[in-house]
Amino acid sequence: MKITTVKGTNDYLPEEALIRDYLQNQILEVYRSRGFMRISTPAIESAENLDKSEGGENLNLIFKILKRGDKLAEAMASGSEAELSDMGLRYDLTLPLCRYYANNKAKLMSPAKCIQIDKVYRAERPQKGRLREFVQCDIDILGSESENCEIELMDTTAQALLAIGMKDFTIKVNDRKLLKSFLTAFGFDPAHFDSICITMDKLDKIGVDGVAAELKEKAFDEAATEKLMAVIAGGDLSLEKVSEIAEDKESAARVARIIETAKTLADGKYGIVYDITLIRGQGYYTGTVFEVESHEFRGAIAGGGRYDHLIGKFIGESVPAVGFSIGFERIFGILMAQGFKIPNAKAKIALFYDSDKFLDAARQAEVLRANYTVSMLERPKKLGKFLGRIQEAGFDGYLVFGEGEEPKLFA
Amino acid sequence: MKITTVKGTNDYLPEEALIRDYLQNQILEVYRSRGFMRISTPAIESAENLDKSEGGENLNLIFKILKRGDKLAEAMASGSEAELSDMGLRYDLTLPLCRYYANNKAKLMSPAKCIQIDKVYRAERPQKGRLREFVQCDIDILGSESENCEIELMDTTAQALLAIGMKDFTIKVNDRKLLKSFLTAFGFDPAHFDSICITMDKLDKIGVDGVAAELKEKAFDEAATEKLMAVIAGGDLSLEKVSEIAEDKESAARVARIIETAKTLADGKYGIVYDITLIRGQGYYTGTVFEVESHEFRGAIAGGGRYDHLIGKFIGESVPAVGFSIGFERIFGILMAQGFKIPNAKAKIALFYDSDKFLDAARQAEVLRANYTVSMLERPKKLGKFLGRIQEAGFDGYLVFGEGEEPKLFA
């Protein structure tokens, strides 16, 4: 039998699992303290829902579950791969949330402030930092168009990141409507917007000339490209500049208000910047999009945005919605690499006993549990050697039953 | 798009999810206080491991994951259903634990005291109380043959059940070796042991005559059946009686010691009984088996046993192991039906604000969070009506921004 995990998934050792639990609980507590409420949905969704969910490239990464019995035999006979499965594992928590909201609308408050901390599955090509089973920590506000929702999500996500010791991060903000209006002003074809932004996003790396060359290579409308390059070469892609060019002044004003208020709440503890090149892959975003960039990790550690039409696909009427998701695995990776330790953990001791003294030892263990985490262990033959092992395993001390009342703590 | 969950799975409302988290955390805390350490394994395992895992009837209930791309095309071309999948969702936490131990042996303490609280998947025929996605709470001790492990697991499981308010339960204990020796003494064919026990287990319901009739109907060895019926008719299936008949006095003595010591630790807070008819379905059990029966629920709420050979299938050498698993969904069902309330929860209030006062309200919310869980909500047009809704949703009070410092709590 195979002893390794299936490709792209992990076993977590006890000390890793303890830290994962601690971090998830800290995030959960920050979310809950702000009135968000955790909900829970199944990891399995119908294939129909997954396929229609506008998840962008993620739709190619769905793990499908095989039909069973007669249904499977029929599907095999049909010769069609698509017939083999009618369910799959969720690739994110947004689609299940929308289905959940549609399913439970009558029993939920409006607006509903939801937390989801759970596993999702993607058949990614395994590589460093890309897992096939991973945890996301999402908050969403459903049922409100107010831009205050965006601010609350940004503030709450940032507070959660601060609570677990993340430092040096910046929230990047953009707005799909404003972006569209900006690019439209130059005369670009809306079909090219994503591709243009992917190139613009490389400005830091390849410079103005590099961006110009790549845009030319991609052969978008020449006149539009020239006008855009003039702006880029001017070195100013600030919100003010973008707002000047874009016709959609309402979106521009909204983004400005969101950033200004969120900055005041941030109080210098983290950055908030406008970034015209921020896209986010999912097709379902309709307005604000945001992403948290860690300067240490050089990459996104959280992302989200407004998706006002996705719930409507379930219930026929549009329900405004906005969400922010922390990519838990990246955070976990960063903190572990930094040697993360759980603050104020209760000391853990071993109580060694001789087999025939189990009952009396159990009673002493119960007394000691008022102050310690106590693991009862049969006294090994070579206690001295064993002490090194338990210290490695994270124990803080030990007591041999019958040799006193208080444990000896390791130096 | 479909708004309901896939068959046999549940959405949990915020108040349900809160209680599920609370209960799981209480169980986890009891486990951890006794030195067990949580580990985490993927929900997906290789088909090979799942198929060879001796899971009894559960093997028929595995959700299989479809291959992808070229591999799927090849499998379709082969025309063989078995070729379509090489992974599946775990049906319990014991098989993944054994693979985990084999995979991480060098990094684990011996004995390893492990906790798993996680979701498992079974393609059960949907019916009341049978879910296709459900949570199990397992503790296991790997690497020790000592019967003290059994006692520690019984005590720890019972303490966890008591911590979440479960009352009126009894731990039933049996031992596969003792049972085998008992039935062998009458001359039964070992192949019939399971079937005999299933009938004996009905003694309460169908009486001595009923059991006699069913055993006769099943047409086991006639002389053996007669001798067994004489014992059953005698009305004494106690451990003492069984031990008298069985040749395996060592197992009899072990069971007696386990029960006696566990009873002393139980101190009358829950029952512990020997039950010759207790089988447990899994083929991998080798010695002690146990099950917790809730008198309120009239059914098993936890179960486990010793499985000394399962890990050996991975690493070639036998590693003694014993585990106890709480069936979380049954417990959750019982407690919810009893109107369970989380003790000592922090009061949750709504802070209503006018949209343009968001920033100042956010600052007041932060101050209030020292004492309350505070959810910021835009002031609705009809506040009076809305107050009823938030009370229903579990809020304990509210404050309108600008109308004072302290929230008004609902009566």
Q: Which runs of chain A of at least 5 residues are low in confidence (pLDDT < 50)?
A: none
Order of helices and strands of chain A: HEEHEHEHEEHEHHHHHHEEEHEHEHEHEE
Query: Which fold does the CATH topology of the largest domain in chain A refer to?
Result: BirA Bifunctional Protein, domain 2
CATH class of the largest domain in chain A: Alpha Beta
* CATH level 4 superfamily of the largest domain in chain A: Bira Bifunctional Protein, Domain 2
Helix content of chain A: 40-55%
Strands in their spatial order, largest beta sheet of chain A: 1-5-6-11-10-9-7-8
What is the terminal separation of chain A in angstroms? 42 Å
The CATH architecture of the largest domain in chain A comes to 2-Layer Sandwich
Taking all Cα atoms into account, the compactness measure Rg of chain A is: 26 Å
Main β sheet profile of chain A: 8 strands, mixed
Shape of chain A: globular
Number of strand segments of chain A = 15
How does this model look, in words?
The structure is a homodimer of 411-residue chains. Chain A has 411 residues and is α/β, with parallel strands linked by helices. The first copy, chain A, is built from 15 helices and 15 strands. In chain A, the strands form three sheets. Chain A has an eight-stranded mixed β-sheet with strand order 1-5-6-11-10-9-7-8, with helices on both faces. A four-stranded mixed β-sheet of chain A has the order 13-12-14-15, with helices on both faces. A three-stranded antiparallel β-sheet of chain A has the order 2-4-3. In chain A, a hairpin with a 7-residue loop joins β14 and β15. The mean pLDDT of chain A is 93. The interface between A and B is large, with 95 and 95 residues.
